[in-house]
Amino acid sequence: MNLRPNQLAAHLERTLASVYTIHGDEPLLAIEAGDAIRAAARKAGCEEREVLVAERGFDWDAFRAAIANLGLFGTRKVIDLRIPSGKPGVEGAAALEACVANPNPDNVMLITLPRLDRTAQSSAWFTALAAAGVAIAVYPLERGEIPAWMAARLARQGQRASAETLAFLADRCEGNLLAAQQEVAKLGLLLPEGEIPHESVVRAVTDVARYDTQQLSEAWLDGDAARALRIIAALDAEGEALPLLVWQMGEDLHALAAMLDAAAAGTPAATAMRSARVWGKRQGAMERAAKRVSMPALTTMLRALARLDAVSKGIGAADAWDDLRGLSLALAGHPAVPLATPSVSGARIAPQPT
């Protein structure tokens, strides 16, 4: 059985499975899911917990013994197995498959894994774990899911917030749920129950958002100029390497050019995206950008990219971060000023793979 984190509480109220597998890369959701399972197990009579960490050189016989034995005083127990690498190895895979094939009804097994790729999730050992119990994927929330997540957390504290306030909180905490939870808890301490004023939230909340180049790519392709500028400012403040952001802009502009060329030739959008190697959440943003950006405008952006690439490498006296902001606004459909095109020696539009 596969469950989302927000479905786990209702499941645990009804029953307690013998095997739980938590996998993913959102620390807060993984911690909370594990805490909820352990609490339910204690309520069901599992008075002991044995924690095992399967790192390099781990003795899988210790795991087999833990599964086979009762607790110290003959009580039920939780076998809490963590596999930080997500790779149990041949011996570990065999041990996991064997234990779920003949589970000990007196124990509850909780296995915590990092984010697994498609190959690992299709492996025999992971498939056996998921089939024998409950698998919970804990991945970072999509940006659009954060306001509802915040609202649910505030409701636990007896507080409510307007859509404007929830959007503000989501912007300030995007990509950092651990800090977001701390901010929500702080609001519970500082502000009374009921509707919380927007102005009070603005004064109380710290900007703890964490961004990466993937989020920046989605922002400027999606036409969200304000978010793109906010992410650029955050990455600049964090000391992110400018060439990486320039490379991402180049990837997006060249992929967009390939999309427009394919569309002009009558190629379906899905086929064009595959050819341009556009995957996942970036697909929707790229499709919207292709509808918004014309080929003449894209040609100007590519020329501006050549200048930006040169300036970011120290050729010329312009401010590369300003050039990046200007190019991101243009791509998002909100150009502030005409784009600066190559004026430095040797700057040219270098062909790049899409």
Q: Which structural class best describes the helix and strand composition? A: alpha/beta
Instruction: Please report the distance between the alpha carbons of the first and last residues.
Output: 39 Å
Q: Taking strands numbered 1, 2, ... along the chain, how are they ordered across the largest sheet?
A: 1-6-2-5-4-3
CATH fold title of the largest domain: Rossmann fold
Largest sheet: 6 strands, parallel
Describe what this molecule looks like in 3D:
This protein has 17 helices and eight strands. It has 354 residues and is α/β, with parallel strands linked by helices. The chain folds into three domains: 137 residues, P-loop containing nucleotide triphosphate hydrolases (Rossmann fold); 62 residues, Helicase, Ruva Protein, domain 3, CATH 1.10.8.60; 119 residues, Up-down Bundle (Zinc Finger, Delta Prime, domain 3), CATH 1.20.272. Strand 4, helix 4 and strand 5 form a beta-alpha-beta unit. Helix 13 crosses helix 14 and helix 13 crosses helix 15.
Describe the structure concisely.
55% of the residues lie in helices and 11% in strands.
List the keywords.
single chain; 354 residues; alpha/beta; Rossmann fold; Helicase, Ruva Protein, domain 3; Zinc Finger, Delta Prime, domain 3; 3 domains; six-stranded parallel beta sheet; two-stranded parallel ribbon; 17 helices; 11% strand; globular; disordered C terminus
What is this structure's SSE topology?
Elements: E1 2-3, H1 8-14, E2 19-24, H2 27-43, E3 46-53, H3 60-68, E4 76-82, H4 89-101, E5 107-113, H5 118-121, H6 124-132, E6 134-138, H7 146-156, E7 159-160, H8 163-173, H9 177-190, E8 194-195, H10 198-204, H11 213-222, H12 225-237, H13 242-264, H14 269-275, H15 282-292, H16 295-312, H17 320-331
Parallel strand pairs: 1-6, 2-5, 2-6, 3-4, 4-5, 7-8
